[in-house]
Amino acid sequence: MITLSNDHTIRVWDVDNLEQTYEFPYPPNDPCLCISGNPNAMLFAAGFKSGTLRIIDIENVSVVE
């Protein structure tokens, strides 16, 4: 499960044990407006107010802009 938080973080959760597994901060001046996960891979896309789209590879903890 992936969530957005008011503290300017995107959090990834393990739904089996309800624990947070990853946290990705983002700048307050460019809020994240939407996220979408990939059910077939450990990837998610995040869209920001500036128009930036980031693809985040959770397993390798890398960001592609």
Question: How would you characterize the overall build of this protein?
Answer:
The protein is an all-beta fold and 65 residues long. Helices cover 0% and strands 57% of the residues. It has no helices and seven strands. A hairpin with a 5-residue loop joins strand 4 and strand 5 (43-48). The protein is globular and about 35 Å long.
Helix content: under 10%
- Average pLDDT over all residues: 89
> How are the strands of the biggest sheet laid out side by side?
4-5-6-7
The biggest beta sheet is recorded as: 4 strands, antiparallel
Shape descriptor:
globular
Number of domains: 1
Summarize the structure.
The protein is mostly beta strands and 65 residues long. Helices cover 0% and strands 57% of the residues.
Summarize the topology.
Elements: E1 2-5, E2 9-14, E3 19-25, E4 32-37, E5 43-48, E6 53-57, E7 62-64
Antiparallel strand pairs: 1-2, 2-3, 4-5, 5-6, 6-7
Which labels suit this protein?
single chain; 65 residues; mainly beta; 4-stranded antiparallel β-sheet; 3-stranded antiparallel β-sheet; 7 strands; 0% helix; 57% strand; globular
